[in-house]
Amino acid sequence: MKAVGFTHYLPVEDANAFLDLEVDKPEPKGHDILVAVKAVAVNPVDTKVRAPKDKVEDQARIIGYDASGVVEAVGSEVTLFKPGDEVYYAGDITRSGTNAEFHLVDERIVGRRPASLSHAEAAALPLTTITAYEAFFDRLGIDRDGADSGQSILIIGAGGGVGSIGIQLAKQAGLKVLATASRPETSAWVQELGADHVVNHREDMVAQIRALGIQHVDHIAIFNDMRHWETAVELIRPQGGIVSIDDTDLPMPMGGMKMKAASFHWEFMFARSMHQTHDMVEQHKLLSYVADQIDAGKIKTTVSKRMSPINATNMREAHRLVETGQAKGKIVVEGF
């Protein structure tokens, strides 16, 4: 089968950063399903895994953490899917990735593909959807179904992939969304997705938010980097909560959090699959819930750019665009 991978961890400008491969087609066992991949999306985690380092793989490494496709075959313990089912999912960072013509994935982290979306539109969603959903509803404890309607959330880095779906999930939960964006195109993008207010994270966010008549916000999600930590601590309400997904090595003074009895949470959407937690199937459930919301017209895809086919040249370009840090929404590569 066809696949895209690499043996050396090279700068994305290097022509050998990705290679077109022919590898053996895998067979599903246990809870695994074999998916004929139709489209994949590129996330910042892809670029971090592939980032240059002094390491050489004996066998080419295949990465990729978003896919939409069709179930080709199932393992002996599979109960959620059958051949022919159309699915979308984010995979498992500890296993071979989705940048392959056929891919093995545990059924418990897979959802049914939204019927109203194409494979490319669906592939843009899983990793970011799981991240935002778990950040809001599992980590911060916001009620998905509206019991916390009217509360406020500040989404820092709202124009990226996680923020783009996060705005929509927060609005569906009835929250007032303050979204940060620093460029005209990303400001327009987050407003289109439903943000109530747009704040420039390259300027004084505290002053901007208080100019709106808002002293504190109930929840904060940091979806870009932790350079905004002290701003977040200043803006969070007493007994509120902050969640982040990145930059574990930056300073995070906790004095202000203690004085407010505020909580802090890390979100890592691979934790369930990596540790084979007892509740892995929750990712299947949440992806299927979001598929229902999409098909009901309440949430839309976040794809902003589509490329074809899935090959080394296009994967290198997709990674380059993500590495600029300027991409809005998601970049999708489709078709082998």
Could you explain the architecture of this structure?
There is one protein chain. With 336 residues, the protein is an alpha/beta fold. The chain is 29% helix and 27% strand. α3 (126-139) crosses α10. It folds into two domains: 2-125 and 271-334, Quinone Oxidoreductase, Chain A, domain 1, CATH 3.90.180; 129-266, NAD(P)-binding Rossmann-like Domain (Rossmann fold), CATH 3.40.50. β13 (236-244), α8 (255-260) and β14 form a beta-alpha-beta unit. The protein has helices spanning 44-50, 119-123, 126-139, 161-172, 184-192, 205-211, 229-235, 255-260, 271-274, 281-295, 312-323; strands spanning 2-8, 19-22, 32-42, 56-61, 67-74, 86-89, 102-106, 110-112, 152-156, 176-180, 197-199, 217-222, 236-244, 263-266, 303-307, 330-334. It holds the Pfam family ADH_zinc_N_2.
